[in-house]
Amino acid sequence: MSDADIRRTFLKPVAMKVFAWNSKREKDTVMSPLDSIKYSQEMLQTAFMVMDPVTGAVKAWVGGIDFKTYKFDHVNVNTKRQVGSAIKPFLYSLGIEDFNFTPETECQTSQQYFPGFGYVPARPDKHEGGSMTMASGLAWSVNGVAAYIMKQVGPKRFADYMKQIGIPTKIDPYPSMALGACDLSLYEMMWGYTMFPSGGFSTRPYYISRIEDKNGAVLDRFDTERKEVISQATAYTMARMMQGPVDFGTAAGLRNRLGLAEMGGKTGTTNDNSDAWFMGYTPQLMAGAWIGCDDRFIHLEGGLGYGAQAARPIWEYFFAKVLADKSLGIDRQSKFIQPENMRKEMIYDYTNLIEKTAPPGAEGANQGNGKANQYLDTSPPTVPVDSKLTPEEQKILKEATTQKSSPQGSVRITVTDAPQQQQPKKKPGFFKRLFGKKENQ
């Protein structure tokens, strides 16, 4: 058969079965082999993993949308995708652990210049020249803040830190790692995030506890592997600060809709919306979700491709089901354990610590982490603007911060058994609101 005959055959419609979103997960149709490939590759894939952050026991593992048709495991440690802003909690925790950052530390939102690499982020945004608190930068996933923290800690130290906390994949010491311009698996991300709800201990996920023979004799046992990688104080600070994204940041309202006393979470969105992430946890349970196509050049356009829109609804739907099942023992009122030494410290007034509307440069306004070749930018340094905005800049800022769509995304989930929480008339300080009133010494 000649090449021309093969090509003609490839374009000839034939009867076949293809994947479909119905009860059988398939349908009979007629299409050409070429069209069937296009149809298959356009399907959004997903990875979803649930585990106990303290013991490491894996509770759920979903490697794709349908094993019958798509057998590739997207959770596996060797299946790596660009993580985007989901990497930022690791960078923030390093700033707190080794460089004395605190949630109220003022951070620049401007591009940062790294000799030999160029600017990070690769292009300036409308927030250029300003500053915000570290907590606000995390809540709104502002790339400029992450770049500023990377400038302080250094790419080499951050790369070493990623290895220190148990991430198997080697991270190269590039400044763009501040924005998640690296590929990691969902399994690795879950492993790394365990240190936040478990008091600073990195816990390796495991899904086999032991192997027995037919007589019940134990042939091998797999115990929990835990290693202390950050202090309990840093872990607690991060767990509380990561409530910002799910209260009024990029995943606003999530905690309230589920009726949880405390939780932490972080969205992630990458180049051209090729990957969408949501990582979240309570003191008892942690889960991570990834959404994307197997071919990265295929992606969602617009807001539907953001982590809060594409990945967060999976996480929320699962936790709503878990919380409704009382037999599972997941308590809505469980709280992270506050270190004894932190209870004796003064609790400052964190009023207005986190901006309540999306600032320019927030995830979605300045999504993803740019393209690789943009980090070779050798243009001259950007001159910071004056701190007082001009009328034209104020107009741009107002337009950028105006909410034109629901921050909860296109998918809404109603949790009927969650207690209704009323919004306070007066907004208290951030950590006061999260930690509660100071106890008597």
Structure description:
- The structure is a single chain.
- Helices cover 28% and strands 16% of the residues.
- It is α+β, with helices and mostly antiparallel strands and 441 residues long.
- The strands form seven sheets. A five-stranded antiparallel β-sheet has the order 4-3-17-16-15, sandwiched between helices.
- The longest helix is centred in the last third of the chain and has 13 residues, at 312-324.
- The radius of gyration is 23 Å and the shape is globular.
- It starts with a helix and ends in a 6-residue tail after the last helix.
- The model is unreliable at 346-352, 365-389, 403-417, 423-427 and 437-441 (pLDDT under 50).
In short:
The protein is of the alpha+beta class. The protein has 2 domains: 41 residues, no CATH class; 392 residues, Beta-lactamase (3-Layer(aba) Sandwich), CATH 3.40.710. The strands form 7 sheets. Strands 4-3-17-16-15 form a 5-stranded antiparallel sheet, with helices on both faces. It has a two-stranded antiparallel ribbon with strand order 1-2. It has a two-stranded antiparallel sheet with strand order 5-10.
